[in-house]
Amino acid sequence: MSQKKYRMIQVGTGGQGRAWCNRFLPPNIADGRIEVVAAVDVNEAALVNAQEGLGLKPEQCYTDIRRAFAENQADFCTIVTPPAFHERVVDLALEKNLHILSEKPIADTMAGAVRIAAKVKAAGKKMGVTMSHRFDQDKTTLRNEIRSGRPGPLDYLVCRFTCNMRRSGDWGAAFRHTMDEALMIEGAVHHLDILADLAGAKCGTIYAQTWNPAWGEYGSGSQGHVMMTFENGVRAIYEGAKTNAAGLNGWTREYIRAECERATLILDDRTLQQIPYAPKGSSGDGVSEEIALLSQPKWMNTWLVAQFLDWLDGGPVMETNIQDNLQSVALIFAAIESSHTGQPVHVQEFLDQAQRRA
After folding, report:
1. Mean pLDDT within 114-123
2. What does the alpha-carbon distance between residue 53 and residue 18 come to, in Å, rounded to a whole number?
3. 319 C-beta neighbours (distance < 10 Å), count
4. What is the arrangement of strands in the sheet containing 99-103, beginning at the earlier edge strand?
């Protein structure tokens, strides 16, 4: 498969955008696959990240997105802005006939996510969503081990993501501390996606409780518990917290346990172990064995950028394409709906209803 160099516009260079400029894009630029022709951020000071990380000249950096899109020919754009602003950028990108690679989630509402997906489909463009944590080294190794069949059929999953980030500003950008349902929209969006991927099936029902303790400086929903049942019978339990006294398992150091017929797999703080089943009468459980993490040059968003470029080249559709990613968005907003009503939500019905209303 021949590889083309694609021209792109980076939208958002502050916060997570800084990581795009300094870490995620440079390896793909070095591979000769990308030419960044412009960068945009409403905060002029944040544009220094594009100049330092991407080598852009000051005249290639804009605070006016319409001007940036009008003055630069490109093949695609990235979207690294708060979720509430994604749809505005998508609309402009489609107006300029651009493909799109966006940070998660698709939008800050289910309705917005469905609208964006419909617009992209109608325009005949390609849009990917960077569900980066699913493609981290440790989670990829766990997925590979489960799918190898060696541990036997999967019964259920447990995921713990707990942080000490209770005060305003602890979790980076200020919008996370004022938005509604911060944990679900900005955190669990990754973890429920990982659980669904490991389960290997669409989610059937989801039940959730989210809340904010008095000491959590958040708009709402900084803590949450979620139970999920998948269409293949696999179950999952999720514990998420941004306001605990001790972190235990923060970003990229999550605890995930997979209970299988022949082994228990435990991923904890980036170390993967398996404990094989020991028949009754033997001395205790099986002996724990560490499983070496897979090795490759690119992980997380750097890898997803490469997958997106392969897709543009005519290769396989990336797993996190916008249509498939609606499943992940539906998990988040169905969980929020469940928390508000106190009742389980049938996820596929929830998504179907959102699409019919669009």
Report:
1. 98
2. 8
3. 15
4. 61-62, 34-40, 6-11, 76-79, 99-103, 127-130
Cβ neighbours of residue 163 under 8 Å, at least 6 residues apart? 171, 241, 242, 243, 244, 247, 250, 251
Cα–Cα dist 320/131, whole Å: 7
Size of the chain, expressed as the number of residues it contains: 358
Task: Tell me the two tokens of residue 144.
Answer: 């590979």
Asked whether 85 and 305 are in contact (CB, 8 A), the reply is no
Distance CA 126, CA 8 (A): 14
Separation in Å, CA 154 to CA 149, 158, 200, 257, 265: 9, 12, 10, 11, 10
Whether the Cβ atoms of residue 110 and residue 329 lie closer than 8 Å to each other:
yes
And the tokens for 100? 């799109």
Taken in order of first residue, the domains within the chain and their CATH numbers are 6-133+301-320 (3.40.50.720), 134-296+329-346 (3.30.360.10)
Whole-angstrom distance, CA of residue 328 vs CA of residue 190: 8
| Tokens read off for 202 | 């669409």
3-state percent helix, strand, coil for the chain, nearest multiple of 5? 40, 25, 35
What are the pLDDT digits (tens) for 61-104?
999 999 999 999 999 999 999 999 999 999 999 999 999 999 99
